[in-house]
Here is the input.
Amino acid sequence: MEVRYAKQEDYPKFEKLHGQFFYAGFIDQRRKITVPKEVFDKLVATESLFLAFKQNELIGYSVMQGYTDGACKIEEIFISPDYQRRGYGFAFIMKIKEQAKKEGFTKIELMSATYESDRFWEKCRFVSKDGTDLYEINL
Here is the structure.
């Protein structure tokens, strides 16, 4: 699996993959949530969008934000349903942790959306902060 920051030319692949994404709160509605090109461009410019590829196929992405307190927050993360429960999400998180550490971050934080995702984050060695949906891992 290749993992790298998004480039301008990745927009068509990203838009297609993001079309499969749905927010946990909208699970019953399965609404397609689009990302305008201007938003994508900003994510590329600020190196906030990390992409995962398998043999040139975009299979996942993560939107991340760095903070001055040393924390890097995963705002959104998604692996294509065709690649879920096959180890790609775990491998993607390991690459994200490696990159965040390389860039000088001391921890990664995120909000877990569901009980199922709680189990995933725990498998990746993230820890719930005070029993809440906030998970973190020190790097």
Residues 13 and 57 are 8 Å apart (CA to CA). The longest helix spans residues 88-102. The radius of gyration is 15 Å.
